[in-house]
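Minutes, methods subgroup
Present: GH (chair), OT, SY

1. OT presented the first of two proteins processed in the latest run. Sequence and structure tokens recorded below as shown on screen.
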Amino acid sequence: MFDHIIASEKSSNPIRITAVTEADFKNWLGKQTNGHQAWVKSSGYEGKRGTHLALPGEAGVYQTVVISYVDDGKTQWDFAALPGALPAGEYILTDDVTENDAVCEKAVLGLYLGGYRFDRYRKSDASTAKRALFAIPANEAAKRAENIARGIGLARDLINIPANDMGPEELEAAARRLGEEFGAKVTSIVGEDLNKRNFPAIYTVGKGSDRDPRLIDLRWGDESAPKITLVGKGVCFDTGGYDLKPSSNMLLMKKDMGGSAQVLGLARMIMAAGLPVRLRVLIPAVENMVSGKAYRPSDILQTRKGITVEVGNTDAEGRLVLSDALTEAVAEDPEMLLDFATLTGAARVALGLGLPALFSNNDDLANGLLENGLALNDPMWRLPLWDDYRPMLDSKAADMNNISGSPYGGAIIAALFLDRFAEGAKAWAHIDLMAWNPSARPGRPEGGEAQGIRAAFKLIADRYGK
């Protein structure tokens, strides 16, 4: 994950990282020695945000790194390039960072995320044995940053693991490891027991695979505390079913369990912070495969809520498995219900890869997520649950169809489908996300990504924290 960048012991002579705001750079430069001013000028360094420069000390060995930043929602990314850019050595943040609680949290988060790597399948490389190591401050701000980073790292790791090693059973094992770490109770309903326990949509979608479908259920916290329920789409691989995806669209489908990775990462943040809530995590974990047992276009499915659904497209399977999980979640009447899902390509067409679509039946919840997302540079964009589109899900043979007959408004149509099963929820939000970085930027490597969970954690901590 990122433990390889953390200094195990304090160095007697670490290289100091001093941080200067972009606006204050000229003032800072004027206070430096003539030699350092000349060095900065000859280096062409202008103190732009996210850039850094090493300043030489005695005998030509540099003793300080200056980094420029802007104190806003993107501050963590200003620091995120350092783990990969600095030469081997031990580094420490100076007091101007560590004594500013807000900046320290962002800086440490940036270092952690900048040091993240997924190397489960790579042989160790001797050339990387020597690297930049960072002494992490022993303060509350750094602890908060580590908690957030480990939640994000967990989500990234789970998404990055290929489907041959991350099927429904392995996803359950990951949830159980997390539960064991924090004393949560984890149960599951597996295979044909899903039908017996009235989770027919999950069973029907997953029965086409040789790997048994399941509903994973994690519970943690005082039963009398406010109930927070998280639901994550856990389609561990999606071929599209009989409405088969082309190979180019199937290549990244190991990430179709990205919603489940988000809720496990968010759950880790909540439990590690010890928030006084009653947490529940529900993950319908399946593979959507082609076989003699797989469901077909035009099949009519039963759901836990009793609504029958005609299958207009087997590649719209995520909403089907979520329908049973949402019905179960609403039955407990939680104060807040959040679902995360890599649900529609339409949301990506509308908003791109880096901006999840947010739908909600509660303006206060939606506004809280949006405001925290903007403040933390973990953004979402709200789309409407547009009533006039509801008839587009009508079916002549069942209570509803799982798709519309129109190529337009696909993200809204999918959210309206889920809304039927989230009916009665006090405050429900649906986040339709990509869960993947197609290219690398500082702190955001190519591969699996957490989206929206920092904003959600901040909202939950602010509303229900100690």
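2. SY then presented the second protein from the same run.
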Amino acid sequence: MRWWLYNVLFAVAYAVMLPQFLLRMKRRGGYRSRMGDRFGRYPSDVLARLRQMQGAVWIHAVSVGEVYVAGQMMRAMRAREPGLRFVFSTTSSTGWREAEKQVGPADVLVYNPLDFPLCVRRALDAIRPRALILTESEIWPTLIRACHRRGVPLFLVNARVSDRSAPGYRRLRFWFGPVLRMFSSILAQSETDKRRLVDAGADPERIDVTGSFKFDVAVRNPVKEQEVAAFLAHMDCGPARTVLLGGSTWPGEDAALLRIYRRLRPRYPDLRLVLVPRHFEKADAVQAEIERAGFACVRKSKEMPRDPTGGDSRPMGMHHSLLERDPSAPPVILADTTGELMGFYGNAQIVFVGKSLCEHGAQNMIEPCLCGAATVVGPYTENFRPVMSDLLEAGALVQVPNEMALASEIERLAGDAEVRNMLGARGTASVLRRKGVVDRSAVALLNAMPHHA
């Protein structure tokens, strides 16, 4: 009765969301050509490759962060079992594009089947996995039940239960408990996550607290750092300046940083502001915000390539008068390109991590800490609870409750190079000490899987 009810409710929910789902598919162009994957029907060439695979591990991830986690896990497992092959599934076109960078030539990338019994059965018949690995909070009951019935080992890695989800899991323990107890092993991010999973009905004997995979996912990019350093030096934001960076900012946070910058600039003439919005398609709105605050704006996307002959290499759209203006009013840099955030983190002295002041959840604060920047976050960091606990305990970053406190902290760091350098050094050391979770987890998973000849 319980499973019949779930299938009915899932079908109703899917029907309600289908128009929005189709509209998004049309807008993004995403997985329209692979819609059959959702029903367990794969293109003939994909099906042929799946049939040739023996003992492949099925790994599933959705968000970009989860895809990075899955990619790290794949590489760590393959380092210990070189012939290991993976079937990587995701649910969105964004996840697909990122997953394409993570899979190897011997792996197969598919869209996850809808969580209906027939779709799941077709997918399992085609993939015949040695094991199924789900990431973070990806709980698909029908898929989990079908794997369990077939004797396919189930693993949940980097498992977490958010503050928002925990009460619901606990109330629906009668439903989640039997599902969670089907996992062979759960690798949780923190003791809090373990307690919440147990409250939801999971077997405590099958849960190990490993720490967060996110510490391993963060990797510096020296090539990108050098490219960004050249750009910043050209914009008078080189090593002699103090770069304040807003990383992955959300609406409202750019305006807050601009207000703080406008107030501090007269007292700290070497301070420079760089904004890296979370969604680069909103760059026009951020530029308008910059100009309303009274600053000129330089957009990274309009940078002209340097002329190797020594000719004019001004950014597009900028006049000589802007570059030659009084340095007391330097432009604000708007980094509206993709894939360069780590390069900017490696060249910043002070970083504010977005989605933590005006939105809830926070972006990744591990990355600027790794790069040695003095890192500041707002009060809303729910998505990184175990990470924040570790970093705060180590004095690796500073958390502030509101914009006024953020302004005071930025001023403190802008005025004392020794303090910000020490904070940055603690951040780097703290992240490096916590690396290795992925390797240890890879060993644990391989030991728990059936041997494949």
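Chair's summary of item 2: The mean pLDDT is 89.
Next meeting: continue with the remaining queue.
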